[in-house]
Amino acid sequence: MMDSLLPAGMWKDLGTYYDIVNAFDENKTIGIHIITDAERDNDFELLFRQSEDNQTLGEVQDVKVNGFAINDDSSSSDDDDSSIDSVAEQNVEIRLASLRDFPSLMALQRMYYVAAERVAAPLRQSLDETTPFEYMAPNGENVLNVLWKNRDKGCIEKVQTMLERVLEGGRLRLETEGNRLMLLVNSVNDGHYYQPVNVGYGTVMCCR
Questions:
Q1: Contact between 25 and 31 (Cβ < 8 Å)
Q2: Which one of 6, 106, 159, 191 has the minimum C-beta count within 10 Å?
Q3: Position 115 in a domain
Q4: Is residue 119 part of a domain?
Q5: What sign does the CA torsion over 161, 165, 169, 175 have?
Q6: Element (H, E) at 105
Q7: C-alpha distances in angstroms, 36 versus 24, 29, 39, 186, 204?
Q8: Measured between alpha carbons, how far is residue 39 from residues 64, 76, 164, 174 in Å?
Q9: How many CB atoms lie within 10 A of CB 65?
Q10: Residue-number span of the structural domain to which 161 is assigned
Q11: Per the domain annotation, does 92 fall within a domain?
């Protein structure tokens, strides 16, 4: 949820809101500034304060889109799917029922943080058809299911493009094997695919 700041959960354990707020901030607020590559409504400033109902959480207090303030008012937005006019074009303060009115902001919910310390590329992973959402833990777990569920959106091709920057001619293949997903990689552009554990992915330099 974009209107809440969750310091702890399935993918992280940072404690409570009080643990992550700047100790020298008398207002005890946390500001997040996000700039996307969308054509419009692409600059967001969110200000969070500690929730009165749950001290573990933060709740959004103020939001600016392209430098203009918006307010949350559940009685003012239509329920249809029509998009709102650009905030920058209106140049006035508007009232919205939800941050969902801004697709470029909500798209960030599909982003994942992957830490430097993560599990090795798996050969096989159980196919998960029951989880109602796509998730990947910071250590990289469940990555094959994320790739599989987004295969029709060109996700595998995008990953392959990034792979080619690391491995010249690098290719990957994701297949099903019963109720499991299987990952195969090619790093020498010879048409053969191998288990990730059998593929070199680094450069070694020796000094004598």
A1: no
A2: 191
A3: no
A4: no
A5: negative
A6: helix 103-106
A7: 29, 23, 9, 33, 37
A8: 17, 26, 28, 33
A9: 24
A10: 124-198
A11: yes
**Tokens standing for residue 41:** 């409504």
> Is this prediction's pTM over 0.70?
no
142 in the same domain as 63: no
Same domain? 32 vs 65: yes
Residue 151 is assigned to a structural domain of this protein: yes
Does 99 lie in the same domain as 45?
yes
Which residue carries 């700047």 as its tokens? 22
CB–CB of 86/41 below 8 Å? yes
DSSP helix/strand/coil, 102: coil
CA distances from 149 to 127, 129, 138, 156, 192 (A): 10, 9, 18, 10, 25
| Judgement on whether residues 134 and 80 belong to the same structural domain of the protein | no
SS (H, E, C) 136-181: CCCCCCCHHHHHHHCHHHCHHHHHHHHHHHHCCCCEEEEEEECCEE
DSSP 173-203: EEEEETTEEEEEEESSSSS--B-GGGS----
Per-residue pLDDT of the chain (208 residues; tens, 9 = 90+): 567 888 887 667 788 899 999 989 899 999 999 998 888 888 999 999 999 888 888 998 888 888 888 765 443 444 444 444 555 454 444 444 467 778 888 877 777 777 788 777 777 888 887 765 677 778 888 888 888 888 888 888 988 888 888 777 778 889 998 889 998 888 777 778 888 877 766 544 455 5
Q: Tell me how far apart the alpha carbons of residues 172 and 72 are, in angstroms, rounded to a whole number.
A: 45
* Amino acid identity, position 159: V
Q: Looking at the 3D structure of the chain, how many domains does it have?
A: 2
